[in-house]
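Bug report (template v2)

What were you trying to do?
Predict the complex of my protein with zinc ion.

What happened?
Run completed; filing so the output is reviewed.

Input:
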Amino acid sequence: MAAAVRASGAGTVVISCSDPRLNPYQVFGVDPSIKGLTMVRNAGGRALDSVRTISALQAIGNPRTVIVMHHTDCGMIHYNDEAIRKALLEFAPQEKATIEASKYGEITGSPGTRIIGVKYDLNSGVCTQVLEGIAGTKL
Ligand SMILES: [Zn+2]
């Protein structure tokens, strides 16, 4: 996997969880300064949350590989949308409409972009490929 990331450096996007125990650069053994390698991190490593960034990158640089990296013991396993909305409404009830309408659509068609899903085990340090396909095709 690390060799694939290094080899395809230009035009590769890694979507991963923002958990500080997970360091995708270290996992893949790549230099953070490598050109064309972009990290997009968010709670749970959710692709849906990355749509705006991925869309902009498709328009600007047309990345040819997208890697979605999840990990064991992810904090987001313990939460669901309803629980998050409930907690957010307690903090910011004035934003009720925005919080309740927090849907971001779906990623549609990026023909030719290779998508790779990987799972990183925090305990063993092993990164396993779990999915691979081409955007716009059934996996
Ligand atoms: Zn996580």
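What did the reviewer find?
Residues 86 and 99 are 9 Å apart (CA to CA). The two ends are 19 Å apart (CA to CA).
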